[in-house]
Specification:
5% helix; mainly beta; DUF4124; Immunoglobulin-like; three-stranded antiparallel sheet; 2 domains; DUF4124 domain-containing protein; disordered N terminus; 1 helix
Length: 167
């Protein structure tokens, strides 16, 4: 495709190439850019210039810069949600915009500390979370582990039934 486009867009100039003519064994005139014994050089008075019939002025050939402006959002749980689970499990999911590229990872921060290792998807399951108020956020990390985007922190409240009996 590129070769075809370059052929269509290139200007051909006969003035820059020498042209030779001779008769072959059958008496037919042969034109070539390679001289043969007995060939005569042809004088070209005006260069034969042909241009492409394709209008290339409308083509945008400037390279596109892909911006690495990411947005991270926690979609579950909602801010200030109360989670009722006696096992202390919390399902956390997030969204990355515009697109999650290969090599990026997500780190979940629970109460200011990393929760397990960063992973390649934005769904986490927190286990055995203590009763009370907790804060989570997600950090998007590049290939070198540098934070390139963070979510807004989300506060949730873990409610676990107590087995303590009042006296």
């Amino acid at each position: 495709m590129i070769a075809l486009l370059s052929v269509l867009c290139a200007e051909v100039s006969a003035g820059s190439t020498k042209i030779y003519v001779w008769r072959n064994a059958d008496g037919v005139l042969v034109y070539s850019d390679s001289p043969k014994p007995g060939a005569e050089e042809v004088n070209v008075n005006s260069p034969n210039i042909s241009s492409s019939s394709v209008d290339t002025s409308i083509l945008d050939i400037t390279p596109k810069v892909i911006e690495n402006t990411y947005q991270v959002e926690i979609t579950q749980p909602e801010n200030n949600a109360t989670i009722r689970d006696n096992t202390g499990s919390v399902y956390v999911s997030g969204r990355i915009k515009p697109i999650f590229k290969r090599g990026l990872t997500i780190a979940l921060i629970l109460d200011g500390k990393p929760y397990l290792k960063p992973q390649t998807h934005s769904m986490f399951v927190l286990r055995n979370i203590d009763r009370g108020e907790h804060q989570i956020k997600m950090d998007l990390l590049d290939e070198k582990g540098k934070v390139i985007a963070s979510s807004t922190p989300i506060t949730f409240y873990m409610h676990r039934a107590s087995v303590n009996k009042a006296n």
